[in-house]
Design goal:
Blueprint: H1 13-24, H2 28-35, H3 39-53, E1 58-61, E2 64-67, H4 69-96, E3 101-107, H5 109-115, H6 117-126, E4 130-136, H7 139-147, E5 153-157, E6 164-177, E7 193-195, H8 201-212, E8 219-222, H9 226-234, E9 240-243, H10 244-247, E10 263-272, H11 279-292
Parallel strand pairs: 3-4, 3-5, 7-8
Antiparallel strand pairs: 1-2, 5-10, 6-9, 6-10
């Protein structure tokens, strides 16, 4: 018994194209002309193909070379291989054009739900061959997945990490929300806070903004979900800082304690800092930018 896989012959697509060409042409001279090569190059290429396959592909009838039965069998395989290779080439062309392949996009909830949901829907409909996979999570989680190669693109809160190429998309206002009875109250009376967990990029922005105005930052509850934080404020559990678009929609419909935002945060498109950005990711970023102009 022979174990293991049979060793494949080291043959090239060009050699298979040569074989098909001489089968389809009246003469080798015509085949060489159709291929745009010399007759010498054609003969050498077919001789090498024959040597690597280990079977005789051509015999002689007087001064004329004629294909053997082996040549007809190999040509049948060659036609299938060339057809599949053409399909592969067409597919890679579509991948480079951003209309096929796979695109893995991570987005924070505000980006996925409030700002770019309709663009994602249209993008998916326009590119039926593209496997578009969306995951929603906090910014740092998305950036970690981007670093690990699990995402091609992250739409998240701005970061200064030099390992990413950053494209700013939009700025959004974040307001302070607390009990209505505390409207326009001084900053030193704000809190306690319900906010995003430690490690959150937005939490760090909020902490710095509150410290800058002299507000204490005692955190009594944490959640990555703005809806949960809004509900905690609504039932009187604590104060929070959230984007207006998320805090002031039903069912919570919070009212800010002050008319001016406490801070602005920038949402960005992040890709790994290299020259291999997925073409579909580049196209999607452009669509996001057009939406926010």
């Amino acid at each position: 018994m022979i174990s293991g896989k049979a060793k494949l012959p080291d043959i090239s697509i060009t050699q298979l194209e040569y074989l098909v060409a001489v089968q389809e042409a009246e003469t080798w001279a015509e085949a060489a002309a159709n291929l745009g090569v010399s007759q010498s190059a054609l003969s050498q290429g077919l001789a090498e193909l024959q040597r690597r396959l280990g079977v005789e592909l051509f015999g002689w009838n007087g001064r004329r070379r004629i294909p053997t039965s082996f040549a007809h069998e190999v040509t049948s395989h060659a036609l299938r291989i060339l057809s599949l290779t053409s399909d592969l080439s067409g597919w890679t062309d579509r991948v480079r054009a951003g209309v096929a392949g796979k695109l893995r996009v991570g987005m924070i909830d505000a980006a996925a739900v409030d700002y770019f949901g309709e663009i994602l829907r249209q993008f998916r409909e326009e590119k039926p061959e593209l496997d578009l996979h969306i995951s929603v999570g906090p910014s740092q989680q998305l950036l970690d997945a981007l670093t690990a190669g699990k995402l091609d693109l992250a739409i998240c809160v701005a970061t200064n990490d030099p390992n990413f190429t950053i494209t700013p998309l939009l700025e959004e206002d974040l307001y302070v929300y607390g009990p209505l009875t505390m409207r326009n109250s001084p900053a030193e009376s704000w809190g306690p806070w319900v906010t995003f967990p430690n490690g959150s990029l937005t939490r760090e922005l909020i902490r710095n903004a509150l410290f800058a105005v002299g507000a204490p930052f005692e955190v009594i509850a944490e959640s990555n979900q703005p809806e949960v934080l809004s509900e905690m404020v609504r039932i009187g559990m604590g104060w929070t800082v959230l984007p207006e678009i998320q805090a002031q929609r039903p069912p919570a419909s919070l009212v800010p304690t002050h008319d001016r935002p406490i801070l602005k945060r920038t949402l960005v498109a992040a890709t790994r800092d290299n020259d291999l950005t997925n073409p579909a990711a580049t196209q999607l970023i452009s669509r996001f930018l057009n939406e926010t102009k």
